[in-house]
Structure formats: C-alpha cells, structure tokens
Design goal:
The complex is a heterodimer. Chain A is built from five helices and five strands. Chain A is α+β, with helices and mostly antiparallel strands. Chain A is globular, with a radius of gyration of 16 Å. Chain B has three domains: about 200 residues, Aldehyde Oxidoreductase, domain 3 (Alpha-Beta Complex), CATH 3.90.1170.50; about 300 residues, Aldehyde oxidase/xanthine dehydrogenase, molybdopterin binding domain (Aldehyde Oxidoreductase, domain 4), CATH 3.30.365; about 110 residues, Aldehyde oxidase/xanthine dehydrogenase, molybdopterin binding domain (Aldehyde Oxidoreductase, domain 4). In chain B, about 30% of the residues lie in helices and about 25% in strands. The chains are: A alpha+beta, B alpha+beta. At the A-B interface, α1, α2, α3, α4 and α5 of A face α1 and α15 of B.
Chain lengths: ~170, ~675
C-alpha cells in the first residue's frame, strides 16, 4: 500500500511521517510513535480510552485516520505534564482515587482537560454529562467526578500562583 | 532472559505511571519480529465444518482447552472445548483458524484468505431449548452438563402460605475497558508469556496442560491489567494458539481482543433461571424453601457453568435461618459462548432468588419487607440445611436498617427497595506470597494478581505494620510465575483477606529469620541483610461479610428508571484502606445498577449475538448513575489482619434492592434482570 506523508505537531514536537492511508490515528500514535498511553478499548468510539486533544479539542483517535491529522496539533496523555511534573489534574486523579485499573484514565484526563478549558468551574451534572463519551468500568465514576472537581480547584490555584509575581 | 526490556520498576504496580500514560499494558509490548495474530471465528451458533482452507487450524493443532481458574470444574471429555473448532462449531465467535502477519492490519487482511464451508445446524439457544432438544455434543445423552443437589428433600410443610416464582438473570458481558490480550515468546526452550490476567498461576497451569509442556519451561508474567471482573482468570483458546504459534514460528506472537470479539467470545456471567418455592406461616416465618436452578452453561464445560449450578444452590437460603431447604441445580449446554464468573460468580444469583421471594412474601402478607426479613434471621450463628455457615445476622441487619434510614425512606418514598445478603468470600485454598529483602528494599509478589483493586496499598500497609519498615521501600510487583511457583488468583472477594494473610505470614517468617540471626528483631537488622521467604497460606476457614442496600427510584413515562438513591451498609472487616474499600464498593454498585437496568448480551433465535458494541451491552455512563452512599462497618475477621471480603458485595446487594424499588414504584411484580423500559411503560 502506498504511503502518504503527513506533518503533525505532537506534544509540542514537529513530526513528519509516512503512513498507510487506512491507518487509524490511534495506531499511528501507539505503534509508529510509541505513545502507548493512548488506549484502544472498544473499536466503536463509545469508550473514549483513545481520547486525545486535536487543536485543543477532545477527539477519539480511533475514529480518525492518521492522514486526517495532517497539519494539526495533537496532545496525548504523555504531553500534559511539564518537565516531569504532573499536571494538577493528574495529581487530582491520584489523590481522589479517580482510577482503579487505569486503562480509561488517559482518555478521562484529556476529556476533562477539554471540559475545564471550556468551563473552569463545572457542576457535577455538567461533569457527568461531559463524560458521556468516556466509559469507566471500575470506579462507578464518582471518584472521577470528585477528581475533576478537585483538579479544577488545583488548576485555578496554580494559575493564581503564576499570576502573583506579575502583580 | 525474557525479551521484553522493562526496568525493575516497570514491573511494579504503580498508579502514578497510569495517570502519566506510562502503564505497561499487554498491547504496549513491542518486540522485534513480533507477529500479530487474528482469529477467524464461527459465524454460526452451530454447524458442521465441511471444509477449511488456509490459516492455522485444528489440522495443525488438536489440543483441548484446560479448565483452570475461578470456578473451574473438570468436565466430561465430550464437552471439553477444543482449542480450534474441530469438525463442528458450537457458538458464534468460536475460534476456527488463526492467521499471523507483521502488523495488525495485515493479519486482519489475511482473514480473507481463509475459506470455510459450513453446514449450518439448528442451534440450541435458550435454557428451554436445551431441556427440550437432543444433545449438542454427540455421545452425550442430554444437554445436562452437571446435575447436583444441595440439602435434603423434605415433605412439603403444611403451611398456610406457599409461594412459587420463576426468576431470571440474563447474561452480562464483563466488559473491562481493556479487552483480553497476550504476548508469547518462545525463546531458548522457554515459553515466556505476558498477559492481562487475574492469575498468572492459572494461566501457566492451563497452558502447561493444553500444550503438554513441562511446567519449568513456561513462565507467565502479568502486565498491567485493565479490569477483568472475573473474565480474565481462566484460559481461553487464543492464549493456547498464540503460545503454540510462537513455538511453531520461533517468533513472538501478540493477540489483542477487539470489543466485538470480547462480546462474542469472552465468558460472560449470570445467565441463570431459578424456580423457587417457599412455605411460610401467616406471621411470615419461612418453614422451608425448595429451589431449582438452571444455568445456561454455554457450549462447553470449560467455563464455570457446572460450578455455578452447585454453588448457587449452596447459598440459596441467603443469610436467613430457614430450617428446611433443598435445591436441584443443573448446568445446561447451549450453542452460546461458555458461561464464566462475573463479579459475584453465583452469589448475586443466589441472593436474587431468595431476596425476590422475601419481597413476594412481604407483599402477600402485607408486611414490611424489613420485618419479614427480621423474622427469618437469627441472633445466633446458624448452619443452613444447604451447608452454609452463617454468623448471627440479626444484630447486623437491625443496625443496617437504621444506618440506611430505611424506615424513614419507606414512609417518604413509594419506590424504595431494601436488600440483605451474606457474602461468603473465596478463602479456600488460600494464597501465596513471596517477600525478598535485599539492598535495603522489600519486594513482594502475590499469587493472586491485582487488576485495578490496588493490592499494593494493602501490601505496603501490612508489611509496614508487621516489619516496622517504611511503606516507601516496599514494592509489590505484578504477578510472575517465576517468583510465585504456586498461587491462586484474584477473585471471589479474596485478595485483601488471603493475599493479606499470606503477606502477614511471610513477614512473620522473615521476623523469625532475623530473630535467629541477630537474637532480636529490628527493622534495621532486617534491612541490613538478604532474605527470601515464600508462603503458600492454605486456609479452610469460612468468613461471612454481611451487607445491606437501599435504593430509591423514579420511573418516567417511557419506562426509564432514574436511580435516586443507592446506599450500601457493608461489614468489610478491618478496612485496610478506607478509600480503596469505598472505591471498590462504588464501582461494584455501578455494575449492580447496570445489570438491573440495561446490561445484557442478546442472542436471536438463531443464536446470533445481536449485541454489537460496548454501548449496546449497556455498560453504564456517568450520567446514568447517582452519587452513591457508602457506609461501612468494621467487625474484624478471624484472620490475623482482620480483613473480610468486599469486592463482590455491591453486585450482590444492589440488584436485589434496586429491582424491589422499581417494583414498588411501578406496582408490578418483576422477575427478570435487566428490567427493560418496555416492561415499565405506563
């Protein structure tokens, strides 16, 4: 099968690749780039384990071809911590037990990052509604909802901290 | 040497790596020259294979599937599943052939190169079909795989109230978000296996038996395991095929299940029907119970169908002191994927049968369901006529009714349900643990392997308590048969109990080692030396964990159920970590709601699976679920560290409370899970 050239920016790094036109984005990320934090859970875009951010928006990478990502900026779970320090939302999931087996976790984190970008202070109902494309079989979601609420608070605190020296 | 290059800490359980996207799941493994395997599956529920060309098949490998793991029961030779379908296919999704290529797209392409000619045969799809049709396997006399009785038959008591009902739980797919998967690598005479599993030791035993290998030549290592809920404890045909292929081709082989394959080919749970008859006095006291349990075992005896038929019967008087009981259990062969354990594995079914009858009795006598229950329990320990030992139930239940604020809720709300159960966790046959102390660090392996429960949390705590070493120098590693030569598995609500007890026992052996060497024990003395202790802590004791649930619902015009309250009050023994216990309970409550409201594997009259996605299968969404209320009682168990079982409590207690709440809200007797909206429309 002939290969197609694509240019993407993944976790801040410019990447040029050649891919089979039929290759799904999730397989490109996992197998060509070794970014195995993005998971495959269902093949029918129900479970959201494969969620990544494309140009800041949550997208299920199993419903998209790698060639469709050409020219776009992608953030995977590996790209949300900075200099080895966990993102506040990752810390919140650890502290509030927002995971058990951890398989849905990367998708949960990226979907909630997108939510928190749109809405810095979501209600429980808004959080649950926004998770309708992400399945978790272990937690019953309650600790995930709590993690996201707590993560929102940590993110605000961190922003305020960073704004302080400017004043 | 194994060929996966993971650093030491890469083989430890570590939640931080999971939130970083740096877990070590089986599909994350990449080895040079690795082949990807795809499986050609039967499109028919039942048929004769007239011709087969292409791929690896029963012409290449004639092995049979070993029955290992939770609920494994030896089966007659006639009903053992072949690794590859041989001569006949007996369920949609049964492996017929396998192909291999250097990537998953190309191995999928290769499936087109296989040609199979089938002569479709009339399948046996339902429990009734199984009772009324000839045997699906030639040589058998009927479709009865196992028949067993519990208790002694007794003449019908002469009571004014005799109630009988037929109750059912449909099949539920376990649906962990990570499907099954395996990587095999036959290398220098050793078969190395990496697998998503609840029990490396079961997988090893199964592979050794199915492949006729020397146990010393097989090493099974657990990868991070993304949920299991019962379905990853035993052996499956794909595991044997991948192992055989690695030996045949001299290359590593990877097989990763798709969700559709999971729905079709991974052992689902439930799938039982019970006919239950109770005899009671006008005051509500039950004098006797007779039951008939029918388990839809699926096409082969390699699942847990045979075990279920007996085990459900054993528990069918629940926590109640019923003097006479007799249950006949039969596991029936049908042309569907073999049944297996699903969170509770017989316990939820048994509890469903008796709890539905207690509610019926309350309605018949116009009594409060709590009062009917109270009347039928004892404030002393009781041994049921079915052989189950039950602790004094009444003190717990009285407290539970208060803790759940049931009486207040029953006055306020029409749609309220209350349930009571006793969980008998799987202590038998104990568990193994190995602890190595070296270089100032404590490394631990367990025979039963965590798949999301966070075993590392209780292991660190117990090692700290027993040995006085800080938790941060203690590491629990994932399962590895090289480190625990024997072991059971994580299922049956057992790990914190028996895994915990094994860790405590191994710690005490280490203490003895230090004492002998130094004359006294100190943590410093321990950490200054090198020690290696292994314990296989066998136990035959029995433990009870009581639990009660309350649920309230509202039903919409279209029959859609909104769960308003879902509250648990469970005795968990000593909670080794409260947050982890609450997490287990909340997760199980979601599964209990799922089973009651929308989870089902549906087959049509041809035995075709019509459930085609995880969404169709009814796995609950965040917005389907309420905030759960969890209250725990901590009555220490007889084990040295005081733990009891908890993992399966919610899948036992929630369906029975919830279906009662729906029944009350709608004013219509309900007999089957899942309760569909069309059953409830106004």
């Amino acid at each position: 099968m002939s290969l197609v050239k694509i240019k993407t920016r993944i976790n801040g790094k410019a990447i040029e690749s050649e891919v089979e036109p039929r290759k799904l984005l999730v397989h490109f990320l996992r197998e060509d780039l070794g970014l195995t934090g993005t998971h495959v859970g269902c093949d029918t875009s129900n479970c959201g384990a494969c969620t990544v951010l494309i140009n800041g928006r949550a997208v299920k990478s199993c419903t998209m071809l790698a060639v469709q990502a050409d020219g776009n900026e992608i953030t995977t779970i590996e790209g949300i911590s900075r200099n080895g320090e966990l993102h506040p939302l990752q810390k919140a999931f650890l502290e509030k037990h927002g995971l058990q087996c951890g398989y849905c976790t990367p998708g949960m984190l990226l979907t909630s990052l997108w939510l928190l970008k749109k809405n810095r202070n979501p209600s429980e109902e808004e959080i649950r509604k926004n998770l309708s494309g992400n399945l978790c079989r272990c937690t019953g979601y309650q600790s995930i909802v709590e993690s996201i609420k707590y993560g929102a608070q940590l993110m605000k605190e961190k922003e305020e901290e960073q704004e302080m020296p400017v004043r | 040497m194994s060929s996966v290059r993971w650093e030491d800490m890469d083989t430890a359980y570590d939640a931080t790596s999971l939130v970083r996207g740096k877990g070590h799941f089986v599909d994350d493994i990449r080895l040079s020259n690795m082949l990807h395997m795809s499986v050609m599956r039967s499109p028919y529920a039942r048929g004769r294979i007239l011709g087969l060309k292409g791929g690896m098949s029963s012409a290449d490998f004639k092995g049979k599937l070993a029955s290992v793991g939770e609920g494994a029961s030896p089966s007659s030779a006639l009903s053992i599943e072949p690794v590859f379908a041989t001569g006949f296919v007996n369920y949609v999704g049964q492996p017929v052939a396998a192909v291999f290529a250097d990537d998953r797209y190309r191995s999928t392409d290769l499936l087109d190169s296989i040609e199979v000619d089938y002569e479709p045969l009339k399948p046996v799809v339902t429990i009734d079909d199984a009772l009324n049709s000839g045997p699906i396997h030639s040589g058998m006399n009927s479709n009865v795989l196992v028949e067993a009785t519990q208790g002694k038959d007794f003449p019908d008591p002469n009571t004014p109230i005799v109630l009988e009902d037929i109750l059912e739980n449909d099949r539920v797919s376990t649906n962990p978000i990570e499907p099954r998967g395996i990587v095999t690598d036959y290398h220098n005479g050793v078969l190395n296996v990496w697998i998503s599993t609840q029990s490396v030791n079961s997988i090893k035993t199964g592979l050794v038996e199915s492949l006729g290998m020397n146990p010393d030549d097989v090493r099974v290592m657990q990868t991070d395991t993304g949920g299991a809920f019962g379905s990853k404890g035993g052996l499956y045909p794909e595991y044997v095929i991948a192992a055989y292929a690695s030996m045949k081709y001299g290359k590593p082989v990877k097989w990763i299940e798709s969700r559709r394959e999971h729905l079709a080919s991974t052992n689902p749970g439930r799938g039982v029907r019970g006919r239950v008859k109770i005899f009671a006095a006008l005051n509500g006291k039950i004098a006797g119970m007779k039951g008939e349990v029918l388990v839809d075992a699926g096409a082969y005896g390699t699942g847990s169908g045979g075990f279920s038929a007996q085990y459900i019967g054993f528990m069918m008087t629940g926590p109640y002191s019923i003097e006479n009981a007799f249950v006949t259990g039969r596991a029936l062969l049908t042309n569907k994927v073999p049944q297996g354990p699903y969170r509770g594995a017989g316990r939820p079914e048994a509890s469903y049968f008796i709890e539905r009858m207690l509610d019926l009795l309350a309605d018949e006598l116009k009594m409060d369901p709590a009062d009917v229950r109270l009347l039928n329990m004892s404030d002393k320990p009781f041994e049921s006529p079915l052989g189950m030992r039950i602790d004094a139930a009444r003190p717990f239940f009285e407290t539970a009714v208060n803790e759940l604020e049931y009486r207040r809720e029953a006055k306020l709300t029409k749609g309220v349900g209350l349930s009571f159960f006793v969980l008998v966790p799987a202590l038998y046959t104990g568990e193994s643990a190995r602890i190595i102390v070296k270089g100032g660090r404590v490394s631990v392996w367990l025979g039963g392997n965590s798949h999301g429960q966070g075993h590392e949390v209780f292991v660190k705590k117990l090692v700290n308590e027993e040995l006085g070493v800080p938790e941060d120098i203690v590491t629990l590693y994932r399962g590895d048969t090289k480190m625990t030569m024997v072991g059971e598995g994580s299922w049956g609500s057992r790990s914190a109990m028996v895994g915990g007890a094994a860790v405590v026992a191994a710690c005490r052996k280490l203490k003895g080692d230090v004492l002998r060497e130094f004359g006294n024990y100190t943590a410093d003395n321990l950490l200054s030396g090198s020690y290696d202790e292994f314990v296989n802590d066998e136990t035959r004791r029995s433990i009870n964990s009581f639990g009660a649930n309350l649920a309230t619902v509202e039903i919409g015009k279209m029959g859609n159920v909104k769960v308003k309250k879902c509250i648990a009050y469970y005795d968990v023994g000593r909670a080794l970590n409260r947050d982890m216990v609450i997490g287990q309970i909340q997760g199980g409550m979601a599964q209990g709601i799922g089973q009651t409201l929308h989870e089902v594997l549906s087959y049509n009259e041809d035995g075709q699976l019509i459930t085609s996605s995880i969404s169709d299968a009814g796995v609950p969404l965040a917005e389907d679920l309420p905030n759960f209320g969890v209250k725990i009682a901590e009555n220490r168990s007889i084990l040295p560290h005081g733990a009891k079982g908890v993992g399966e409590s919610p899948t036992i207690g929630v369906p029975t409370a919830l279906i009662r709440a729906i029944e009350k809200a709608r004013g219509k007797r309900l007999r089957k899970t899942p309760v569909m909206p069309e059953d409830l429309m106004e």
